[in-house]
Design a protein that fits this description.
The protein is 36% helix and 18% strand. The protein is of the alpha+beta class. The chain has two domains: 378 residues, D-amino Acid Aminotransferase, Chain A, domain 1, CATH 3.30.470.20; 69 residues, ATP-grasp fold, A domain (Dna Ligase, domain 1). The strands form three sheets. Strands 9, 10, 11, 12, 13, 14, 15, 16 and 17 form a nine-stranded antiparallel sheet that branches. Strand 16 and strand 17 form a beta hairpin.
């Protein structure tokens, strides 16, 4: 054992834990590290970056990330370039990133061409290309695993191919603009004439370079329902590097429900309250309750499904979700520009059908960090605090890859040594399990200080 029952570190750690529990809105790892270190005369302070020397800039001042950054007690700045850490929107990336030189230690929360993963048409393009590449390399078994996205066509470029497929497989299809979020511009249809009307309304011409790009997908008509209502999952993934690929998957997430009961009746096809789970849409429902919201924790959902289907089937589902996320990252690994200054937090949207098969709907480069309920705020605050711990501006993490940091579990680390984990090979996934981030962060801080 590292520590005897009466070791000085453990005695001081118990005292620290009591102090931590009395403080809200703090970084547990950072506070625990500092408090234990202070008990030993601050020997570690000389080798680590002081919190007061870290300058941060934050574009989103009304969301949880700003609270988390302030709680770190870093120094806020409005300088365009004189910062150590910048949480920005993608607009700044477009305007400035390619025209400035960053110091080695500066960190920024987007990769240059993040849209290869997060723009709906590019995501599908990369997934299809990966599948074809694997088939050409005669890796047919792995290629067959790229079956977690709906049948999709990019418009206007693939309109002809789509029409042929629609005539072969009619039914309900869904149109999505590639550059919009929060459910804007999405609609369902069952007849090509409805597309013709849309084309006319939008002055749509395939040769028009100014036309708004859409994707059209076969609608998943048999989603898994709870209480007769449709839902999808929001899952958080942190990518620290693409070359080599290193990513973590957050244990906690949530299910977003519709207010209306699911229906495939003709008269309900156009009803967004039935088919779209986006909060920006559901909050306008007559039955919306602002106190309870429309979300359910991923842990509660997993426990509910286990009671209905058994642990083995539900574990397989969550492993399949984890595998789909990993494969999506692998599909863009060679096209996203690696930059040591960059990291990115993605919000994955996953739909589960009644056969317990997961479907990747989209990936968000700027997932909402606003909180609409106390539970939502608690989840996002802890998750973002763990993001900052993993980005490690204070340089306190061990050099060896950790399997878990706070609520994040290692998804993949291609740069790991033989003695370090590259990925978690088990069929079991911690996704949706109890999030023991507080306990884990305290243990990690103790271990770091004990190792000197």
């Amino acid at each position: 054992m590292l520590y005897s029952p009466h070791s000085r570190v453990e005695i001081q750690s118990a005292r620290v834990a009591r102090q931590i529990r009395k403080k809200k809105n703090t970084s547990i790892f950072q506070k625990c590290y500092r408090l234990i270190n202070n008990q030993f005369g601050g020997e570690m302070a000389q080798t680590k970056m002081s919190k007061n020397s870290i300058k941060f800039r934050c574009f989103w001042k009304t969301t949880t990330i700003y609270e988390v950054l302030k709680a770190r007690q870093w120094v806020e700045t409005e300088s365009e370039l004189d910062w150590d850490f910048f949480w920005s929107d993608v607009g700044w990336m477009y305007e400035f990133f390619d025209h400035i030189h960053l110091a080695d230690h500066q960190r920024f929360n987007h990769f240059r061409n993040y849209y290869e993963l997060t723009r709906k048409d590019f995501l599908i393009k990369n997934l299809k290309r990966m599948k074809k590449t694997l088939e050409k390399e005669d890796k047919l078994e792995e290629a067959a695993n790229y079956n977690f996205f709906p049948q999709t066509y990019a418009l206007p470029a693939e309109y002809g191919l789509f029409v042929e497929e629609f005539k072969r497989i009619p039914g309900v299809w869904i149109m999505k603009p590639v550059g919009k979020a929060r459910g804007r511009g999405i609609f369902l249809f069952t007849r090509l004439s409805q597309i013709s009307e849309w084309k006319k309304d939008h002055r749509w011409k395939s040769e028009n370079p100014q036309v708004e790009n859409y994707i059209v997908q076969k609608y998943i008509e048999s989603p898994y329902l709870i209480g007769g209502k449709k839902f999808d999952l929001r899952i958080y993934v942190l990518v620290l590097s693409y070359a080599p690929l290193k990513a973590y998957l957050y244990r906690s997430g949530f299910a977003r429900f519709t207010n209306a009961h699911f229906s495939m009746k003709k008269e309900d096809i156009a009803n967004k309250l039935v088919h779209l789970t986006n909060f920006s849409i559901q909050k306008h429902a007559p039955t919306y309750n602002s106190k309870t919201g429309t979300k359910w924790s991923l842990h509660s959902l997993k426990m509910h499904m286990i009671t209905k289907h058994g642990e083995a089937k539900v574990n397989e589902l969550f492993h399949d979700i984890r595998s789909a996320i990993l494969r999506s990252l692998l599909s863009v690994q060679n096209v996203i520009i690696q930059d040591k200054h960059c990291f990115e937090l993605y919000g994955y949207d996953i739909l589960v059908d009644k056969a317990l098969k997961p479907w990747l709907l989209e990936v968000n480069a700027s997932p909402s960090l606003a909180a609409d309920t106390p539970q939502d705020r608690e989840l996002k605050y802890g998750m973002l605090d763990d993001v900052l711990t993993l980005v490690d501006m204070e340089r306190r993490l061990p050099t060896q890859t950790s399997l878990q940091v706070g609520g994040f579990d290692l998804l993949v680390d291609q740069g790991a040594t033989e003695s370090s984990p590259k990925t978690v090979p088990s069929l079991f996934s911690y996704l949706g399990c109890y999030n023991d981030r507080d306990k884990q962060l305290k243990q990690m801080a103790k271990a770091q200080l004990a190792s000197g």
